[in-house]
Amino acid sequence: MTAVVAALGALIFNALSAASTSRQIEVTRQGQVTERFSKAVEQLGAAGIDVRLGGVYALGQVMRDSPADQPTIVEVLSAFVRNKAGTIPQPDLTASAAGVTARQPGTDMLAALSVLARRNPKHDAAGQRTDLSRSNLSGLDLRGVDLHDVNLTGSDLRRATLYGTDLSGAQLGYANLAGAALVSADLRGAMLWGANFTDANLDGAHLENARLHDLKGSHITEDTTGVR
Please, what are the domains in the chain? Predict the structure, then answer.
């Protein structure tokens, strides 16, 4: 009987020890994740682009290693892109494309957009999107960039180059796309209510299931868009 009690005591002790060790390992892991996250965020504000790129990719790795931290990282990288692009206080749908000059996005901005696009949406917060609302993306060359499901509500995309850009499911309500080049862009399922398409080139763009009022003033080849 004594031997049985001793054996049971040993089993309980071992189980408790294993549980304690597991908790300690998890605490250590979380501490390491927090440290990596903090260092990566600090890198985003560095003067050197190589350091900023390192921060972007480090956050992407943290997001993969710790899915619970993904919603916060999505917010951080979204804010990083908005900061790089600049924001507008209020959308101006009356502004024309005249005077908008072409410009190239920074490598760090493109890297952040790529990391955001590749994330697993199952780990997002409920209803979360990459938030680029009211961003100043005018004149930017964003050809081929993956912007699917991105919130671009009220953004300035005048004369932006969006050849083949994936904007499927994106929110573009009240965005100014005057003079934008949307040739072969994927706008399937996009929300386009109130957007300004004056002089935008939509030849070959895919607009199946897009929600929009009209494409007045745009250049479009209707038989290639899926618009019915």
Answer: 20-224 (2.160.20.80)
